[in-house]
């Protein structure tokens, strides 16, 4: 196993961002509800850096990981929040600024490999008109841990198993109403789960 390192820089600017907002008119199909329309307005800038590395610690141990920093920004001021305020300068919806994964592999036997992996997802925001809140919503950062192993029974057959989100880490969904202070997490997390598979090569 050899050491490796990777670095990627990215910069994306795109125009005519698609947004959905209240037109101020009633929905012809359901007059009790507002009519939402889609339009191409504003610009978005996304730039950042991706880092990756792998470091053998011993003949049987390998440490690897990656990290992504993303700086996103709405530009133009044409997209409104529900309260009418401009979203100019706000980050892109559901785009964490920081994300990282760290994995430690141990191969005690020629036919057996195991790993433990930590996954980090940074704070992110949901500020679009249809986010259910008066203004911006925020999802806090979260870290989960996975465990897994693969055993090669023969040259053609291998068995794998994993426990994902070992600690059952879940960011609670903010279930308050729009006018009751809603400003928290909108995403339903997957709790602890188990995964098994068999692979046949021929």
Automatic annotation (TrEMBL):
Localization terms from the record: Cell outer membrane
Similarity remark: Belongs to the TonB-dependent receptor family.
Domain TonB-dependent receptor-like beta-barrel, residue spans: 5-166
Keyword annotations of the record: Cell outer membrane, Membrane, Signal, TonB box, Transmembrane, Transmembrane beta strand, Transport
Stored Pfam families: TonB_dep_Rec_b-barrel (PF00593)
Bilayer topology: Multi-pass membrane protein
Name of the molecule in the record: TonB-dependent receptor-like beta-barrel domain-containing protein
